[in-house]
């Protein structure tokens, strides 16, 4: 089978396949699928090492900015 025919076959197969999983999520903030050991924990702000930040391609974040509430006057 040619590669093109194979790709078309799988595209059609996936498109017509019924979903195997339906989420029971009620709202966007519903966390029932997560272990309560994690959802009960208080969030902790963790500082990131600047050397790690410098290794990441910052072009991917061009136009994005975020300032945490603790940094605002």
Automatic annotation (TrEMBL):
GO MF, one annotated term: protein serine/threonine kinase activity
One Pfam assignment: Pkinase_C
Superkingdom as given in the UniProt entry: Eukaryota
InterPro entries: AGC-kinase_C (IPR000961), Pkinase_C (IPR017892)
Protein name per the record: Uncharacterized protein
């Amino acid at each position: 089978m040619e590669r093109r025919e194979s790709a078309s076959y799988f595209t059609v197969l996936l498109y017509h396949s019924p979903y195997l999983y339906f989420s029971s999520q009620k709202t966007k903030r519903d966390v029932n699928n997560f272990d309560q050991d994690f959802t009960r924990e208080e969030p902790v702000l963790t500082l990131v090492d600047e050397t790690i930040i410098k290794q990441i391609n910052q072009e991917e974040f061009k136009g994005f900015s975020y300032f945490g509430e603790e940094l605002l006057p």
